[in-house]
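LOG
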Amino acid sequence: MSKAEKTRQFIIERTASIFNTKGYMSTSLSDITEATGLTKGSIYGNFENKDEVAIEVYRYNASQLSKIMSRSFGDEFPTTVDKLYAFVAFYRKNWRSVFSNGGCPIMNAATEADDSFPALKNQVKESFEIWTHKISGVIQQGQKNGELNPDVHPDEYAALFIMLIEGGILLSKTTDEEKFLNLALDRITQIIDCELIILSS
């Protein structure tokens, strides 16, 4: 990495939690300079404007979540059923750290991703598409392997899982009650057990 690239990365990493907690629209240039110890000139010397910082920080936050979440779908889990269970377990085990860093970065950005910030809206849309594709891909593989019900629509179930998780996170974070996220995760587990897994006769 060049010196300029290292500086950009430094700014992104030092402000990632602030943007996710305070908001991509609400985080100010003074917040950025305070977090980094850099001057306004240094920030604008590496980014065109604050919106560009916000977009790059969102990409960083979303990619960090994606990397951690993708471990659930790794080779250490031999079956697609194991992968789906591991996906649910990830949120059970990591909800506290997710909440302490401001909550789900995709959901947080989605609440701000209206017509006033179309670039952020496009990034959030892409994140949801990637997330849907990953879960759908696991379900499709399970169907090919004969583990999962061949009659279900993978994209629909992937979207349902995301809706349940995001809704659970929203309610739990708002009320400071873990039970709402667990309720959503319990429902996903029930769907996996009762609708996706092919039971041997």
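LOG (cont.) second protein
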Amino acid sequence: MKHLPTYCLLALLWLLHWLPLSLLRGLGWLLGHLLYLIGRRRRHIVLTNLSLCFPQLTEAERIRLARRHFIAFARAFLDRTLIWWAPEARLRRVIRLHGAEHLHDADGRPIILLAPHFVGLDAGGIMMGMSMKVVSVYSQQKNPVIDAVLYAGRKRFNDPLLLSRQDGMRKALKALKDGLPFFYLPDMDFGPKDAVFAPFFGVPTATVTGVSRLARLTNARVVACITRMVSDGYEVTLMPPWENFPGESVEADTVRMNACIEEQVRSMPEQYYWVHRRFKTRPPGEASVYA
């Protein structure tokens, strides 16, 4: 069978979801160290990102931060077994929501939940899914078995509207206008299309402008949704809605968004998704930073 190795891996992961969180985290510690050692390409990407964003750190300090990131990444990966298969009661013990009052607006305006790519992002997504019906965008996986498991995991509660990234933003815009909160992940490099170069840790970074454009089209409030991994699970915090947003221009709004994300990254730098080539797209004339 073509996908037999995938089914074997998923069977192992399913068994892991019965373990106490403390044991899962211990396995994640081991897996993180292993990934750091064998993941040469991803290790290079992480260290390059850290050198760009934290030039004030010594090389030894960045290496220690990179190791902590791989551990956090591995722990979050194994924690997904809970998100995919654990009962709701256990999930609510492991994932706690703060700031739920910011989900409601007296004027009935739609909500954009700005969800940066921290390693615990899936925990934040499932908490929002348990709290209400939401709309979100996902990237289809090349492996159809993995894609089916990820899709089913995200659809477990309140029948969320999941849109493929290939669908574009029209369906998300309609869902927002229909009153569904949009769990939006706008901080990855998707190329120059529909993006501007906005500073992120002082580096010109190709950043999609969807938050500003959607807010302008729908009069939506923007509520940052920050997921932090802690020793006994995850803390999901909804921050107060942004005031005076959208602002004077799409470009200024995008700069503001990156500044908000940067502030949160500085509070838990090991948990940001540094394995992604965030600075892949460069301004015209600039060479790749990952060569």
